[in-house]
Amino acid sequence: xxxxxxxxxxxxxxxxxxxxxxxxxxxxxxxxxxxxxxxxxxxxxxxxxxxxxxxxxxxxxxxxxxxxxxxxxxxxxxxxxxxxxxxxxxxxxxxxxxxxxxxxxxxxxxxxxxxxxxxxxxxxxxxxxxxxxxxxxxxxxxxxxxxxxxxxxxxxxxxxxxxxxxxxxxxxxxxxxxxxxxxxxxxxxxxxxxxxxxxxxxxxxxxxxxxxxxxxxxxxxxxxxxxxxxxxxxxxxxxxxxxxxxxxxxxxxxxxxxxxxxxxxxxxxxxxxxxxxxxxxxxxxxxxxxxxxxxxxxxxxxxxxxxxxxxxxxxxxxxxxxxxxxxxxxxxxxxxxxxxxxxxxxxxxxxxxxxxxxxx
Length: 360
Fold this sequence. Notes:
This protein is 51% helix and 15% strand. The protein is an alpha+beta fold.
C-alpha cells in the first residue's frame, strides 16, 4: 500500500478517535451525540473552538487544560485518540482492502465499549446493538471479511458468530451466578453497621465504615442483601438477633416490611452479611455478540478464552500488588475487546504457535 493510503487511515483514526472520545463521555451520561453539535469542556461547558479541538495535538498544546476556564481535561481523550490512531494503522498493515473497513468499524466499537466499561462498569446498548448491525451489514457487502465469496454465506457466518458468542457467554453468566453469585463478610466479632441515603437512588450500607452501595450490588430483581444483626435500631425500635433482608426498594424482616424511603434511621451491630455479586453482565454478552458478527464463530472461540486468560492474569497481578480481595469487580468488556483485537491482528499466527507447541 502507498504512503497516501496510510495517511488516509491515520487521518481517519484521529478523526474517529475524537468522535469515540465524544461517545465515551456522552453515551453513559445520556447526552445527545448531536446536540450540542460541537465538543464542549466538561468542566465549564464552553464550546471548543476548532483550533482547540484538533485530535491529540490540541490536548498536548494546551497541556490537558481547557482554553477557556483553564481547568484540567481528562487524559482519557488523549489516550483514546492515540489508541484509535495506533489500532487503525495496525489494522491497515495487517488486513487487506476492503475487509479492513469492517475491522476499523469493529475497532471503534471496541474502543468505545472498553472505556465506558472501565469508568461505569456497563456497556451501553447503543454501542453493542449498533455494532451488531454494522457487523451484519459489512459481512453481507464484504464477504471477504469471512473469507468467502458469497454475501449470503458471509451473512450466515456472521450470524453464527453472533449467536455462538452470545450463547456461550450467557451460559457462563448464568453458571457464574449459581456458583459465585454471593459473597459473605464474617467478622470475628460483631461490627457496627448502618443504612445511609435510604431515600436516594443509591442507598448504601456502612459496615465498620466501609460503604456497600446499591448500584454495585443490585443487578436482578431477586437480588437481596442479608445482614444478620445481633442488635439493631429501626426508626427508634430496638431489636436483637434479627435478620435484615434489603431488597432494591424495601427492607423485610420477620417484624417489618418497610419501603427504604420510610426508614429514617437504621443502625446496629452484625457478625454476618451477604451481598449479591454479578458474575458477568448482559453488556458483555451483547458485546461478544457484536464481536461475533465481525469475526465469526472461529474468532469467538478464540476471543472468549483469550479474554478469560487476560482477565485472570490481570486479576492475579492486581491482588498481588494491591492486596485486593477477589470480590472486587473487574469489568470483563476490556478483556473481550483485547481478545478480539488479538484475533483480527494476529489470531492466525497465535494459533500457529499453539499448534507447534502442542505438536499438532
